[in-house]
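This part of the workshop introduces the protein records we will be handling. An example says more than a description, so a record of this kind follows.
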Amino acid sequence: MPPHAYTEDQLVEQPAVRLFATLGWHTVSAMEETFGPGGTLGRETKGEVVLVSRLQAAIARLNPTVPDEAVQTAVDDLVRDRSAMSIEAANREVYRLLKEGIPVSLPDHEHGGQKTERLRIVDWGHQANNDFLLVSQFSVTGALYTCRPDLVGFVNGLPWVVIELKKPGVPARAAFDENLTHYKQQIPALCWFNALLIASNGTDSRVGSLTADWERWVDWKRIEREDEPRRVSLEVMLRGTCDPTRLLDLAENFTLFSEHKAGLVKILGQNHQYLGVNNAIASMLEARKLGHGRGGVFWQAQR
């Protein structure tokens, strides 16, 4: 077998890209990215972390009755410079806009004057109405350095998922220590829009929020049910967290910001919490439909 077959790209990255494709993501490599409106991603420079043309198209599609000027106002509000804020505060601000919509002023033809309407950025309930794009080798230039995360998952043009990979035999923690921590320092704008971070060497895979230290990064061993065999692999991680429907659910319903003495903390639901809550809700709905009243019990221990 030729030496290149043992590289991180061949052993870990390319299988991950193929898996994203099977999950319904469009995939593209930015290794040889060209720039401008007709370029690979439509970016003007490597300093841009949002794919503005895709964001603009998504907002227009999800808000078909509003004028182009209102769509552009929403785009400008979302991608504005937040460098004066901490990345945690910037991330929370963006998250609130995604959840609540972006307020814009529109003509009130019925009563005269102006009215405020919130434009949707994400269709949380229908994943097919959103644009999912996985970009490999996405270069971003910060104040001092150009960084190149292995994989970045964009939802409606916004970089929600950042994945750093190591070849088998190299600890997954190295991706956290050497790369993801570096990105937060050198290209913080990429973190303003982040939903989750993943570090993996193909077998050991962990997911965490942008504020979590390594000890709070967790694995994802089951996809559908709590009684599944436990499997620790990048495939289970990606199917469990980056399937479009699950990713939207994790971002909308299993993400929490909490103020602490040490600062603002972003908390993601863990594997057992995600499965337990969703299965309990499904059981309750089934019990209500059948009328037997047996919804089941979900035990949750804090640690």
About this structure: Residues 3-269 form a domain with the tt1808, chain A fold (CATH 3.90.1570.50).
